[in-house]
Design a protein that fits this description.
single chain, 296 residues, mainly beta, Jelly Rolls, eight-stranded antiparallel β-sheet
Length: 296
């Protein structure tokens, strides 16, 4: 486990380059990188004749620009040229990619495009480089988290003993009787989620997810059977409702109840209630979400 900060760029072809003090692409992240924590917030307002000040309308977080400066540490001139060529190949502006910030076990990701091909200068000893990335989605994120509700709980374990002359019913598992899902979002911003409904043992009709204490809900007007799954994606730009049946995925957006809204996971504690008009005891539900962060 490294005890220093580093940035790793990975392009869509899976090629990577590491920027850090232990890399031939030497970068001191604290000193040589800008844009990983600072953001620009644009505020929109209106004004009227005779009004003192303005009236707030809204705001937006602008895309993030990250700039990295560093040096190429090669054993000799030929080695430096080979590393320079590698940097140019991997940081192809026409290929999308992702930056990963690492410090020990702390890991964050951000989608990034190379704004300009690396520029190089020639100090006396080592060749220097400068790279600029544009992050249209300005938020850092981590690996998706899964929270289950109404899951099946195992009730069979070893050692196992059956008494003679005693008729016993065999219980290998049971379903949790709680249909509340508590989602803890330690991120800085609301984020979308994937809600997955599944069935075991019987049909489920009109599954729904409701935010506890409000009338906000997501409801699907359909009946699904054991082995089927329904997935609702509420992420910006990815909103969808999909039924997977026997390995075949079908768009069922038309079955999304018109009184529903695409719920978001707010920062802090979120309490959701999954329900159905029939077959609730056969119903399983889990939520996948990816926390979003303003910086690292």
């Amino acid at each position: 486990m490294q005890d220093y900060e580093q940035l790793v760029y990975t392009n869509a072809r899976g090629e990577t380059v590491i920027f850090g003090i232990g890399s031939p692409f030497y970068v001191n992240v604290q000193k040589d990188v800008s844009g990983i924590s600072d953001l620009t917030n644009t505020i929109y307002s209106t004004s009227s004749m005779g009004q003192d000040g303005n009236t707030y309308v809204g705001n937006r977080i602008e895309p993030r620009e990250i700039e990295i400066t560093g040096k190429i540490y090669g054993e000799d001139k030929a080695g430096q040229l080979a590393l320079r060529r590698e940097l140019l190949r991997i940081l192809n502006p026409t290929i999308p990619g992702r930056l990963t910030y690492q410090f020990g076990d702390f890991v964050r990701y951000i989608d990034a495009k190379v704004l300009e091909s690396p520029s190089f200068s020639h100090p006396k000893l080592f060749e220097a480089f400068d790279i600029r990335f544009m992050c249209l989605n300005p938020f850092w994120y981590e690996d998706s988290k899964r929270v289950d509700g109404g899951e099946w709980i195992g009730a069979f374990s070893f050692p196992f003993e059956i008494e003679q002359n005693n008729s016993l019913s065999m219980r290998f598992g049971y379903q949790s009787d709680s249909n509340v899902i508590v989602v803890e979002n330690d991120g800085d911003m609301p984020c979308g989620m994937q809600v997955v409904f599944a069935a075991h043992g019987g049909d489920v009709t009109n599954p729904a997810l409701r935010r506890v204490g409000t009338e906000q809900k997501m409801k699907i007007l359909t009946t699904y059977s054991p082995g089927d799954t329904i997935t609702i994606d509420t992420a910006y730009g990815k909103k969808s409702v999909t039924l997977e049946q026997a390995g075949v995925s079908t768009n069922i957006f038309r079955l999304f109840d018109v009184s529903s809204s695409f719920l978001q996971v707010e920062p802090g504690e979120n309490r959701f209630l999954f329900e159905a008009e029939s077959g609730l005891s056969y119903m399983e539900c889990y939520i996948l979400f990816t926390p979003l962060y303003l910086g690292v």
